[in-house]
Amino acid sequence: MIPRRYKKDILILAGALLMLWGYGQLFQASPEPDYLNMQVTALTVEGIKVSGTATGVSGDAVTISINDKPLTVLKKQIVQQNGVSLDEQEANRALRAVIATIFGGLVVWIAVFVL
Asked: Which end of the chain is less enclosed by CB atoms within 10 A, N or C?
């Protein structure tokens, strides 16, 4: 049987690690999406919405294959990746980070004040 003190220490460590992971997710720079071979939707300079498979990435440009015809757009013009909005992906990442931080805080609180 694990002594009570070790259980408390393990819970505090686990809660602290969850909180650190959550803070890291919240405050680190958002990761650059990998567009290659993904289904993407972009707005062209003319304001036309186009969808296709990303066949090449170089610098700030992504080459999209639309009916076997290449079209090069800027990364900032891409609005969806695999049918999911880039803003929605970022919101989900932030939500997971906040939930992990809150849960980690609760685990630490339980370990300190309940055990």
From this structure: N
